[in-house]
Amino acid sequence: MKRRLAAAVALAAAMTTALLGCTGGPATTTPKTTASTVARSATPASTATPASTAAPVTMAGARHCPVTIGHPVPRSKPWREQLFGWESAHGNASLWVGGLWPHGVVIITPDDVNPDGRLSMKFGWYRLTSGFLTITGRRLDAPAPPASGLASGYGLTGFNASGVDFPTEGCWQVTGRVSRVTLTFVTFVIKGHCDASAVCVADRAR
What we know:
Blueprint: H1 2-14, H2 16-23, H3 35-41, E1 89-91, E2 95-98, E3 105-108, E4 119-127, E5 133-139, E6 147-150, E7 158-166, E8 170-178, E9 181-194, E10 200-202
Parallel strand pairs: 3-9
Antiparallel strand pairs: 1-2, 2-4, 4-7, 5-6, 5-8, 6-7, 8-9, 9-10
């Protein structure tokens, strides 16, 4: 699993040029919104379009998703290189997540689509507080079943690999919890493909 995380981080770094071509600029140029703003503006559940019949997700939707942009873990953190994906990470005093994709956009290749249609991606975490990691997620831009994460077998502190399964493409808020500590990030998930040079692009640019 650590080798797969390392490969995901390398793949993410190679995506930057391709994603700029799809989005016309980095995600930091998107309108400033918050997860709560997106949630309040969503269509009420009684009249919302079911996820199974929702319009196809395109890269245009990434401009309206309040994605979390990763940054390198500070050199002052002695555990930095123990976190796979530390070059593009997000965290607080007690919990960090690494391997966030460039511009907050995760490209899901056919190899990462499960038989049941769920879209799977690996993320690394680092726990500075004691406890088991649990992961949940919810889609912000349309109705969808919740996302789920598998993060077992890594003791009570330190590095913790995880796999997050997204039921659909779209704008997703992911929350990791260790004891009473939580860490949330937002990412835009879309299907795509990668070439032999590990450059990835979305299948639907517009």
